[in-house]
Prior knowledge:
By secondary structure, this protein is α+β, with helices and mostly antiparallel strands. It has one domain (19-250). Helix content is 33%, strand content 13%. It has 9 helices and 7 strands. The strands form 3 sheets. It has a 3-stranded antiparallel β-sheet. A two-stranded antiparallel ribbon has the order 1-4. Strand 2 (120-121) and strand 3 form a beta hairpin. The protein is globular. The termini are far apart. This is SWIM-type domain-containing protein.
Amino acid sequence: MKTLGFIPAMPEFLNGKKQLSTEEANKTRCVTKTRWVIESATLNIDDGENIAIKMLEQLTKENVLDKRLNELEKQKALKWKKHGGIFCLFPSLTSNDIENITFGSYQIHRAKSYIQEHLKTSYYNPDELTFEVESPEDFDGLVRARFQSAHSNSKSYISTIQFDTNNTNEPIQGWCCTCTVGLRVVGCCSHICALLWHLGVNRGIITNATNPLLVSNFMNLIEDSMAFSDIDNDSDDDNNIKYSLTDNFTGTSDDEQTHSETE
């Protein structure tokens, strides 16, 4: 293949690790991005060259937010408080804004059902549902949410976004997640995408259209799961589960791995 001008590559393996490094996750995304079955189905192949250029620009970048959070953890400076997503002062986004981050649209299609799966009964009104997020005291521009693993009830992942409401050109400053591919900056994982969509596009609002307890929406959830369960495996939390099955037999747990606990 090299003689024909191609560079052979394959996704990185976990090899016993719980998470790919930023470099590994970035390279993996570049390998898995082009999939004819998915791209042709979503009719999203016309702008491939521009997307490829943007992805290569991000390829060697570090995850600055992850490093910042690690430093703040060492200083024990973060005290996270829970509240409903509707109360988060998050920048207003469009679906196109998120596509510029994800380098595609299929994650956005799944975002609504992903949020619905994580709705909880409101603490203030038992008749209402809410999507719970956390913000740190004394630190503006940070928000995080916890997502249940799609494959294990004992695992959850923390997705954190850094934003600037005063920066209209680039309101989203960074992101990171504790899932296997969550450190990449060539696109983002499905958890980050769902959080961006709910807070930025949906504005944290839970309406009848997003209430999973309605029969019509329950059927939509089933249809969504059928549509994406087979093809949306690139950015999911456990896309490398087959390379880390030994963790399930050692009694180790990935719960609440990093970035401080809620005070």
